[in-house]
Amino acid sequence: MEFFYGFDLGDAESAVSKLDKKEQAVPDIVPVQHAKSFITACAVTPDGRLLIGENACYAADAVRRSLRFKSRFLEESESIDELRSFASGVLQELYASGDLVRGEDVCFYVGCPAGWNRNDRELYRSLFERAGYPPVRIISESRAALVSACQSRHLQVGYDILSKPVLVVDIGSSTTDFAYIMGGREVEMQTAGEVKLGGGIMDELLLEEALVNSEKEEELRRVFRESEVWRTYCEFAARRLKEKYYSDIAYWKDHPCAESVLVRYDRPLHLRLRMDAETADHLVNKGAERLGGKSFKEVFMAALRDVRDHISGEQPELLFLTGGVSKLPWIREWCMDVFAESVVICGSEPEFSVARGACVERTDRRGAAGVPGGPGAAESVADDRADRGEAYRQPVPQRGGGTRPASARTGGHACFPEMALRGNQPPD
Q1: Which H, E and C letters describe 98-162, residue by residue?
Q2: CA–CA separation, 76 vs 330, rounded Å?
Q3: Number of other residues whose CB lies within 10 A of the CB of residue 11
Q4: Is there a contact between 258 and 273 (Cβ–Cβ < 8 Å)?
Q5: Which helix (H) or strand (E) holds 304?
Q6: What does the alpha-carbon distance between residue 358 and residue 368 come to, in Å, rounded to a whole number?
């Protein structure tokens, strides 16, 4: 292989890295639609055009829009088509920009949650095959993030940490994933492994608070019930405002952080979103129906304690935080409360850690930096055959067991049936 690509397809945002095996030791992040970290979203216009990223979020004429579909991969069959559409769109963007050239000897390393089993991973790999990708191998996101930390000049962790017990906490948009790594290998824990908790619940709570405070609450709720396009549009606006506030909490302490969203459905309606210290406190400490009446903090702390109680070996010397939500200051404090003996660190750019670590992890078959049994030596669903292109001929496992022959490689999106929506669509 001449080039290795790492693809972190996240539930909220995604990133792609590229490594020239002959020329580079550290991969570069490849922009997609001029953004190093781009929104995981896809939409289809009336004329059948596939849109991804921010273009999909703000498309005025979209007949279908989908966000946060990766978290539904193992639960809803529709999400497979949504994932394939998004993956296909990313591939076409890479070809169009010249960052990927047809005919080159390349391999893609795509991350997945540590808790996915071999059948889940093979089903996921086949999704990229059907989207027209070059050979793809599926690796653990947690392991990739740890490899990235070992390479970081800022963290100064070093590859010697691979011989010690490490707990990787990956906090994404919809789930929090825990992986206990000892001697460079993941050790199965008798827990759920993946907790249905992520930054997306904060977006939902922020949107709900805006609805409760609106004079047009009932009318807006009706619009959201009837139009998924408008609901996702407003939830995305809430997410952007939340990110804006957390990017500089000190500044927004003395300045208003708010946005008015114009909803045009039966008639124009204004929805005012607002972030301040009180709202921020509610996002993590207020009970939510989605969480069984518990708060974000309560569920996260309970998950940490559960993981600690189910570690059968040594307690981790290092707690490595990754995922976009890990930037929030109190996440580290909560982890230190439960794992007082561990060193807790977070990368300076957690949104890129999986993409960077993914394509580095397999460049040396003996493991990361030549460490036998290190992260690079982990198992692959497609085994070494993926690097030789043979993965395209493997049978594809189906939900509920059984297999079917792998389909021919196809591009396009081939999903999103045409839908007739009432009213105008979200504005540009």
Answers
A1: CCCCCCCCEEEEEEECCCCCHHHHHHHHHHHHHCCCCCEEEEEHHHHHHHHHHHCCCCCCCHHHH
A2: 33
A3: 23
A4: yes
A5: helix 296-309
A6: 11
> Is the CB of residue 69 less than 8 Å from the CB of residue 39?
no
DSSP state of 55: H
Report residue 335: phi and psi, to 5°: -65, -40
- Under a CB-based contact definition with an 8 Å cutoff, are residues 112 and 361 in contact? no
Please give the Cα distance from 53 to 33 (Å, whole number): 8
Q: Which residues of 245-281 are buried (b: 16+ CB within 10 A; e: fewer)?
A: bbeeeeebeeeebeeebebebeeebebebbbeeebbe
Single-letter residue type at 347: G
- Per the structure block, which two tokens stand in for 182? 């000892």
**Candidates 3.10.150.10, 3.40.190.10, 3.90.1150.10, 3.30.420.40; CATH matching 3-140+358-404:** 3.30.420.40
Q: Which residue ranges make up each domain of the chain?
A: 3-140+358-404, 200-285
Q: Which two tokens stand for residue 230?
A: 């408008």
Integer Cα distance of 403 and 388 in angstroms: 22
The two structure tokens encoding residue 68: 């946060």
The Cα–Cα gap between 119 and 28 comes to: 31
What's this model's pTM, rounded to 2 decimal places? 0.78
What string of pLDDT tens digits covers the 428 residues of the chain? 789 999 999 998 999 999 998 888 789 999 999 999 999 999 998 899 999 999 998 887 788 888 889 988 988 888 999 999 999 999 999 999 999 999 889 999 999 988 888 999 999 999 999 999 999 999 988 888 888 877 765 555 555 666 788 898 988 888 888 888 887 677 666 444 568 888 889 999 999 999 999 999 999 999 999 988 889 889 999 999 999 999 899 999 999 999 999 998 889 999 999 999 999 999 999 998 888 899 999 999 999 999 999 888 789 988 989 888 888 888 999 999 999 999 898 877 888 989 998 887 655 443 433 333 333 333 333 333 333 333 333 333 444 444 433 333 334 443 333 333 333 444 44
Contact assessment for residue 357 and residue 144, using Cβ atoms and an 8 Å cutoff: yes
In single-letter form, the type of residue at position 15 comes to A
Q: How many residues does the chain have?
A: 428
Q: Give the pair of three-digit tokens for residue 254.
A: 């003395």
Query: Could you tell me what percent of the chain has a pLDDT over 90?
Result: 46
